[in-house]
Design brief:
The protein is mainly β and 112 residues long. The chain has no helices and eleven strands. Helices cover 0% and strands 49% of the residues.
Length: 112
């Protein structure tokens, strides 16, 4: 059973940066496409960014140019570098592995 553990969330001022991490328990992490999602208070969960097994990336329009997804297969970890954060980026951030495996989420609050 693959387990995912997110970390790196917190409180940051508008314009600031955070880097989220998602560590996987599987030894075949490199075989999984990975993605980040977020859920703002009172809203549905939405896709933020994805990275393929070959490290091709894609982003939601709302974060394009500000967020960067990357992966380190040796560390079995996927990252989300978030720059120029806005209050509307506030929410619980989840990582997801192909096949419907979710982490528990890490909270991000962007506020002055």
């Amino acid at each position: 059973q693959v387990q995912l553990v997110e970390s790196g969330g917190g409180l940051v001022q508008p314009g600031g940066s955070l880097r989220l991490s998602c560590a996987a328990s599987t030894s075949i992490f490199s075989a999984y496409a990975m993605a980040w999602y977020r859920q703002a208070p009172g809203k549905q969960r939405e896709w933020v960014a994805g990275i393929s097994t070959g490290s091709n990336t894609d982003y939601a329009d709302s974060v394009k140019g500000r967020f960067t997804i990357s992966r380190d297969n040796a560390k079995k970890t996927v990252y989300l570098q978030m720059n120029s954060l806005k209050p509307e980026d506030t929410g619980i951030y989840y990582c997801k592995a192909a096949g419907g495996i979710w982490g528990q989420g890490t909270p991000v609050t962007v506020s002055s």
